[in-house]
Design the sequence.
């Protein structure tokens, strides 16, 4: 490996790959076998964090940034005047192994611009994964991008070597896609996604009968949507997200605030702010749907098409549904506890455990780590002190924002961490 | 009866032996101290506890029968924090556990249970950090070498993780602060003490000790770290919360050019 040449390629091809925010390396069950290298059984590890605060767990690169397409929102687009480069298959293998051995990374996340055509590109991505698994006995994490339009055979092979496959929808609405990525067809995204979904189902069926069935994409599929590039509202974004979770059993949907990279007038101009807060609100909504038992339509619907930016979506929901409160901490079921603003799932479990020993009061809750500044308006506990005024939603919101400005900001960025 | 002062050898078995002693003699007011922390004079009447494995095992078995697996590992984690006075909290917890018919490890409204859970959490966090922040450098003897200075004594906790992951390479993880390390020889992990040459610098990748390509890989990694960052989303506060500055010293990506 020539150091200088590799160094230059790595700079170009990691720079181009960084807009894909997914960096998860968990959810696989690949154990180290035959004293090989690596192990992807546990939770993924963030080995470092970028200066923008995101988890660095995988070597995230493009195989090449040559591309025959011209998607407006993408730095790699054909019409963009940038330096181009391409890795050889072996170069990616060497980099991955050497980084892994030094405990820099959990594995590889390999994506690519489309050169020649979808299958030609997909073939090379698969070749890298295959080499790592079969020649290097590598058991670390591999995430491959499914190239839109790639053939079923290649997608099947990809899943035999990769832990996760993803195809980014990028643009939440069909109209937006038509406008910004005219070369791409909605069906092209769906095709590999469908194939992978079916293979996973088939694997699970076969596994029941034949124990040694080879693993197929054990960490499942994910996708990403760019936020704020095509004028869509939060309702449309989460509707699409909800649809993909339900129809394709996706493990994760990522939301990536659009980082302006072009003067194209179909898009926000260079210099406009990245919608980081909005992105965070979408993640919180996603979280509420997946872990807190909320239905999509409870949070976003025809009447509420955009999330509040100044308060989190759970608090918004609670303020719209004051008739459900106050909740008694000492008797409420898990579902309702999870709906109290300021209570994370961890606190919910702690409360469920602790209250078997004694009735809980404010002091106990504070020690457990409940954000009482928000929760206090929505709950009662073993104490005669509780909010007795009949406050309106507006009033509660005002009190929370005013009494807890700094702490609130803090918890906001705390939640940002969650989603690294 | 007067308060008693017990001194143990700093090991977990030693501590458990002291606990055994406390129960055996039904002691009430008692202070258990690590011999390295013992303040002379103040405890002139201190009794030295001899570490006895079978006694330690009996206490540990009792603890495990009283608590969930999570509860007992929290005790061990908290012990490894080496925090001043942690022995008193551990003893209070164990006493409480033995006096209760049901398992108490989730009773977070009990002060010692909560405290131990909190300390164990910090130790757990440090364990995860070390699993993340260890940076191996390949030496001329083909050993992947790493030095760390963790806040708590987490080497015993990370051994399994690294053994499983790096089964086909020799490695050393050395705790400079505590003066001992782990060495994996492709077969088993051993505890080692090392003498470093006078001119060996932990933050420098000297070609006298490390392989020729080692610096190149560090350079590539550093480049990667830089170019995967999105400048317009920069958030140093968040960055530093995740990677506190005290860890930067040995991170390859944080080395000056
Ligand atoms: S096909 Fe992919 S790499 Fe090519 S321009 Fe579109 S988004 Fe970018």
Sequence:
């Amino acid at each position: 490996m020539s150091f200088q040449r590799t160094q230059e390629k790595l700079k170009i091809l990691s720079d181009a790959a960084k807009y894909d925010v997914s960096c998860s390396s968990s959810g696989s069950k690949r154990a180290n076998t035959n004293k090989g290298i690596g192990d992807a059984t546990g939770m993924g590890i963030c080995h470092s964090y970028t200066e923008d605060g995101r988890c660095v767990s995988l070597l995230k690169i493009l195989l090449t940034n040559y591309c025959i397409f011209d998607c407006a929102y993408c730095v790699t687009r054909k019409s963009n005047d940038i330096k181009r480069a391409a890795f050889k298959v072996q170069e990616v293998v060497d980099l991955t192994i050497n980084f892994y051995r030094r405990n820099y990374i959990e594995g590889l996340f390999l994506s690519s611009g489309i050169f020649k055509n979808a299958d030609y590109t997909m073939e090379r991505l698969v070749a890298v994964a295959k080499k790592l698994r079969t020649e290097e006995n590598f058991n670390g994490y591999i995430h491959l991008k499914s190239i839109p339009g790639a053939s079923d055979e290649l997608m099947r092979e990809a899943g035999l070597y990769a832990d996760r496959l993803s195809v980014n929808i990028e643009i939440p609405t069909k109209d937006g896609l038509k406008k910004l990525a005219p070369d791409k067809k909605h069906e092209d995204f769906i095709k590999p996604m469908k194939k992978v979904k079916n293979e996973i189902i088939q694997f699970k069926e076969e596994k029941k009968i034949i124990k040694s069935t080879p693993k197929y994409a054990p960490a499942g599929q994910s996708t990403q949507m760019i936020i704020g590039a095509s004028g869509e509202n939060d309702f449309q974004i989460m509707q699409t997200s909800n649809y993909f979770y339900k129809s394709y059993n996706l493990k994760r949907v990522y939301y990536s605030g659009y980082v302006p990279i072009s003067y194209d007038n179909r898009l926000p101009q260079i210099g406009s702010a990245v919608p980081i807060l909005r992105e965070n609100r979408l993640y919180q909504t996603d979280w509420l749907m997946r872990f807190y038992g909320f239905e999509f339509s409870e949070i976003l619907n025809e009447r509420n098409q955009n999330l509040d930016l100044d308060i989190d979506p759970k608090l918004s929901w609670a303020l719209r549904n004051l008739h459900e409160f106050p909740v008694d901490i000492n008797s409420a079921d898990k579902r309702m506890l999870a709906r109290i603003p300021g209570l994370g799932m961890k606190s919910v479990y702690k409360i469920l455990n602790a209250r078997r020993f004694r009735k809980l009061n404010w002091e106990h809750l504070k020690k457990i780590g409940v954000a009482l500044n928000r929760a206090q308006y929505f709950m009662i506990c073993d104490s005669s002190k509780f909010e007795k005024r009949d406050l309106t939603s507006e009033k509660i919101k005002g009190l929370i924002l005013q009494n807890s400005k700094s702490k609130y900001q803090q918890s906001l960025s705390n939640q940002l961490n969650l989603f690294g | 009866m007067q308060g008693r002062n017990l001194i143990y050898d700093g090991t977990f078995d030693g501590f458990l032996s002291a606990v055994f002693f406390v129960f055996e003699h039904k002691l009430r007011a008692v202070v258990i101290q690590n011999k390295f922390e013992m303040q002379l004079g103040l405890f002139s009447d201190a009794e030295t506890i001899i570490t006895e494995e079978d006694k330690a095992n009996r206490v540990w078995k009792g603890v495990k029968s009283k608590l969930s697996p999570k509860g007992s590992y929290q005790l061990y984690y908290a012990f490894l924090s080496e925090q001043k006075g942690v022995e008193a909290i551990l003893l209070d917890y164990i006493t409480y556990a033995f006096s209760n018919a049901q398992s108490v490890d989730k009773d977070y409204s009990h002060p010692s249970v909560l405290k131990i859970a909190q300390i164990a959490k910090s130790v757990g966090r440090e364990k995860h950090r070390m699993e993340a922040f260890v940076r191996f450098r390949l030496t001329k003897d083909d050993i992947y070498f790493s030095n760390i200075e963790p806040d708590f004594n987490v080497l015993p906790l990370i051994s399994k993780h690294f053994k499983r992951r790096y089964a086909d390479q020799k490695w050393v993880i050395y705790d400079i602060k505590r003066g001992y390390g782990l060495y994996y020889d492709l077969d088993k992990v051993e505890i080692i003490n090392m003498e470093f040459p006078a001119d060996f610098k932990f933050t420098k990748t000297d070609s006298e000790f490390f392989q020729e390509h080692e610096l190149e890989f560090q350079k590539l990694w550093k480049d990667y770290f830089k170019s995967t960052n999105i400048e317009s989303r920069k958030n140093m506060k968040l960055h530093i919360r995740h990677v506190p500055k005290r860890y930067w010293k040995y991170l390859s990506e944080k080395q000056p050019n």
